[in-house]
Amino acid sequence: MIPAAFDYQVADSADAAIAALAEHGDDAKLLAGGHSLIPLMRFRLATPGVVVDIGRISDLSYINDGGDHVAIGAMTTHRALETSELLAVEAPLLRHVAGQVGDPQVRHRGTLGGSLAHGDPASDLPAALLAHGGSVVARSPGGEREIAATDFFTGFLETALGADEIITEIRIPKAAGVGWSYQKFNRRAQDWAIVGAAVMLGDDPKVALVNMGSAPMRHGGVEAGLAGGGGTDAAAVAGDDTDPPEDLNADVEYRKHLARVLVGRGIAEASG
Amino acid sequence: MEVSVTVNGKHRSADVEPRTLLVHFLRDTLGLTGTNVGCDTSSCGACTIHFNGESAKSCTMFAVQADGAEITTIEGLASEAGEMHPMQQAFMDCHGLQCGYCTPGMVMAATSLVAENPGGLDEAGVREGLEGNLCRCTGYHNIVKAVLSVGGAG
């Protein structure tokens, strides 16, 4: 499976990447780790005329203490996340979830910014961002803006990013000591989650679901139950107000059942 | 477009189309056919190489992304004198292969895994660490045994 022909450009800075996007518009795609984009190109589901390689922008790869949050460069690999000592203390959910993506080879190449920008409802990291209540910093020719995770994922493989915007940083509020859990259900190693659930307890509990709608989502009903002291009983509504896909792995009812079970396990583990 | 890479310690360069996948560049342009193409969809790991020291699936990279990079393939593991790398020897000693198709990728994934775990691996760590490589012959037991004999804890 060979991708359609394209023009290849290397961007050596975020500004160079933005300039390339401004020049080529919708015909251009950014190439970070490439582990979402290249498979789509090989199936010719994506046929960009211009591929802008941002994989060499080394100053977008960092995990820094930002005071009340952890600041993570968009080009930080999953491997760097899963081995970060800072994240082990301040954002252990994100660190753990990064280690659940794909397999070691994928995690050596895949990046946090790339995974979020791809916006796949079946991928793990968007749920971690949502459960952490994090945000995404996007830069365009007009300047920088910070987009809350809840505003970022807008549809199937669609995000709030503009055609001329690039993610530069991801911000994760510090969550040291807060109970958390990630429950990923699949049938084979390295597979996508059939359903997944990310749970963060604390004063403002958050629950995010994987593969339960067209976009990565938070579940307000479960969160309200948790805030009201419902504990694991809050999981009873985890299938409500969802619109999961139906495929060879699972039908809609089974996915709703999985959501209830996994959220319940997640709450129990996070409370333990 | 011109791509210059260091493969198995040797500088190589060639003119390629941007859409050329790294695995095809290695096999067809450089003639290094030890790296296999299996599933062609980044699942099976037969195409695993080391890219700047870390395991990567060369079917899910473009050759142009490797410009300036250091790559090691299965051909680069043995010594110049032909002495096998300890991991290759372990696969032989433990009968960690049958048809051999997955073996180059398995060995490259395993050497990267062991390098990342200097404190040693347990069986679960080996099995999880090789989740990106599929073998349809062995049932994995002898592969895990081989990797543990090189990189096991204690």
Q: Could you walk me through the main structural features you see in this protein, from its secondary elements to its overall organization?
A:
Chain A contains 11 helices and 14 strands. With 272 residues, chain A is an alpha+beta fold. Chain A has 3 domains: 7-53, 2-Layer Sandwich (Uridine Diphospho-n-acetylenolpyruvylglucosamine Reductase, domain 2), CATH 3.30.43; 58-173, 2-Layer Sandwich (Uridine Diphospho-n-acetylenolpyruvylglucosamine Reductase, domain 3); 180-271, Enolase-like, domain 1 (2-Layer Sandwich), CATH 3.30.390. A 5-stranded antiparallel beta sheet of chain A has the order 4-5-10-6-7. In chain A, a hairpin with a 2-residue loop joins strand 6 (135-140) and strand 7. In chain A, helix 5 runs antiparallel to helix 8 (125-132). Chain A starts with 6 loop residues before the first strand and ends with a helix. In chain A, 52% of the residues are buried. Chain B is α+β, with helices and mostly antiparallel strands. Chain B folds into 2 domains: 2-76, Ubiquitin-like (UB roll) (Roll), CATH 3.10.20; 86-151, [2Fe-2S]-binding domain (DNA polymerase, domain 1, Orthogonal Bundle). Helix content of chain B is 31%, strand content 15%. Chain B is built from 5 helices and 5 strands; from the N terminus they run E-E-H-E-E-E-H-H-H-H. Chain B has a 5-stranded mixed beta sheet, covered by helices on one side. In chain B, helix 2 packs across helix 5 (141-151) and helix 3 runs parallel beside helix 5. Chain B is globular and about 50 Å long. Chain B starts with a strand and ends with a helix. Classes of the chains: A alpha+beta (272), B alpha+beta (154).
The CATH superfamily of the largest domain in chain B turns out to be: Beta-grasp domain
Helix and strand string of chain A, N-terminal first? EHEHEEEHHHHHHEEHEEEEEEEHH
Q: Helix content range of the residues of chain A, please?
A: 25-40%
For the largest beta-sheet of chain B, the strand count, sense and barrel status come to: 5 strands, mixed
Q: CATH class of the largest domain in chain A, anyone?
A: Alpha Beta
Write out the strand line-up for the largest beta sheet of chain B, numbering strands in chain order.
Answer: 2-1-5-3-4
Instruction: Report the β-strand fraction of chain B as a percent range.
Output: 5-15%
Return the structural class of chain A.
alpha+beta
C-alpha-based Rg of chain A, rounded? 18 Å
Mean pLDDT of chain A: 96
Q: Which chain pair has the greatest contact?
A: A-B, 28 and 30 residues
What is the CATH level 1 assignment of the largest domain in chain B?
Alpha Beta
CATH architecture assignment of the largest domain in chain B: Roll
Percent of residues in helices of chain B comes to: 25-40%
Biggest sheet statistics of chain A: 5 strands, antiparallel
In terms of per-residue confidence, which ranges of chain A show pLDDT below 50 for 5 or more consecutive residues? none
